[in-house]
């Protein structure tokens, strides 16, 4: 019953978000706010590629912004058009409706999308690890995972909540689930006892809000056996079959952008902050610097190829979904993440 109630609430929020001006169809294909560097390639010779942003501008996407700003996409023959983010429950629909070409979503959402004859393909993996945490306050009686039982937990309405749900099911924890969007306010005001958070984002927000590390109990889902990588890039199966080379070029330019951002962090932060301010988003350089550094640790992981999903990570995600959440259509790894 709790799950059905949360699902209904999240779907209502999704529809509301889609109706906001930022997601208006008139803005489809809108070019980014910042200027691209001159590439020397005539615009009419570039392949127009529409990319649906996962969220508002922030350092989580610094590599993409730098790749546009430095002209890397153009050097690979691509005119990348940034589109405003949409509610997670509706993102993949924009692929099938051909209103966008590439979306950025977490791995579990990508796997769960392959159903009812619909197919998406992972063309590249940004994060090589999970950044998800479940955080409780020690002064609220949360000193161990066992203390989660009987407490209120805030879970996102987005697809990112799946790992937390799998964790609760596997650990046999009975908690009251409260849907949250993006704010940390319910947690800081003690309206909930535990909250989900990304280490690169909400965890630092909590610290900046005055909470101390020693006062928090942090369950790192990655370290507890739930290391399902976060963001990857997805296209429809039809688009991939028609534009395999474009997909490869997109990933090459994107990773060039990330490597440039890591080598020139202050320049990358300047660009991110400029974009945030142009979009009327509160811009905190200290927090964005934290985020960029955390993204570096998520992307450049020893023994893993930057930008590529590993078979082991894919199979782990499928196994956890099948056993503790719901049956999924598990295509062979070579079909879900082709490398031809």
List the SSEs and their pairings.
Blueprint: H1 2-18, E1 47-52, H2 62-69, H3 72-75, E2 78-83, H4 88-96, E3 102-106, H5 107-113, E4 120-125, E5 132-137, E6 152-156, H6 162-170, E7 176-180, H7 185-188, E8 194-198, H8 202-208, E9 216-220, E10 231-236, H9 237-242, H10 244-263, H11 265-278, H12 285-299, H13 311-324, H14 333-336
Parallel strand pairs: 1-2, 1-3, 6-7, 6-8
Antiparallel strand pairs: 3-10, 4-10, 5-8, 5-9
Helix pairs in contact: 2-10, 2-11, 10-11, 11-12
Verbal overview:
With 340 residues, this protein is an alpha/beta fold. It folds into 2 domains: 2-129 and 230-336, Periplasmic binding protein-like II (D-Maltodextrin-Binding Protein, domain 2, 3-Layer(aba) Sandwich), CATH 3.40.190.10; 132-220, 3-Layer(aba) Sandwich (D-Maltodextrin-Binding Protein, domain 2), CATH 3.40.190. It contains 14 helices and 10 strands. A 5-stranded mixed β-sheet has the order 2-1-3-10-4, with helices on both faces. A 5-stranded mixed β-sheet has the order 7-6-8-5-9. The chain is globular. It starts with a helix and ends with a helix. Mean pLDDT is 87; it is low at 1-9 and 11-40.
């Amino acid at each position: 019953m709790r799950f059905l109630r949360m699902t209904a609430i999240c779907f209502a929020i999704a529809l509301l978000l889609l109706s906001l001006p930022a997601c208006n169809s008139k803005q489809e294909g809108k070019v980014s706010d910042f200027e691209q560097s001159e590439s020397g390639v005539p615009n009419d010779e570039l392949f127009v590629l529409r990319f649906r942003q996962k969220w508002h501008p922030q350092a989580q996407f610094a590599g993409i912004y730098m790749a546009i700003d430095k002209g890397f996409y153009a050097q690979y023959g691509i005119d990348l058009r940034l589109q405003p983010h949409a509610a997670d429950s509706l993102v993949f629909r924009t692929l099938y409706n051909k209103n966008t070409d590439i979306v950025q979503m977490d791995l579990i959402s990508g796997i769960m999308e392959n159903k009812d004859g619909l197919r998406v393909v992972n063309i590249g993996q940004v994060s090589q690890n999970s950044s998800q945490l479940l955080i409780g306050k020690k002064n609220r009686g949360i000193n161990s995972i066992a203390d989660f039982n009987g407490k209120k937990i805030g879970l996102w309405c987005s697809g990112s909540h799946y790992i937390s749900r799998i964790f609760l099911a596997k650990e046999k924890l009975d908690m009251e689930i409260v849907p949250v969007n993006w704010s940390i306010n319910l947690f800081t005001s003690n309206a909930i006892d535990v909250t989900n958070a990304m280490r690169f984002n909400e965890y630092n927000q909590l610290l900046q809000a005055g909470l101390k590390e020693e006062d928090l109990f942090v369950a790192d889902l990655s370290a507890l056996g739930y290391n399902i990588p976060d963001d990857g890039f997805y296209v429809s199966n039809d688009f991939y079959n028609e534009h395999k080379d474009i997909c490869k070029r997109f990933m090459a330019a994107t990773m060039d952008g990330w490597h440039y951002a890591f080598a020139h962090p202050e320049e990358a932060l300047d660009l991110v902050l400029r974009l945030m301010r142009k979009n009327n988003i509160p811009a905190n350089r200290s927090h964005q610097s934290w985020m960029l550094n955390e993204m570096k640790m998520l992307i450049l992981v020893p023994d893993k190829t930057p930008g590529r999903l590993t078979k082991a990570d894919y199979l782990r995600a499928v196994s956890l979904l099948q056993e503790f959440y719901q049956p999924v259509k598990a295509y062979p790894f070579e079909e879900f993440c082709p490398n031809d």
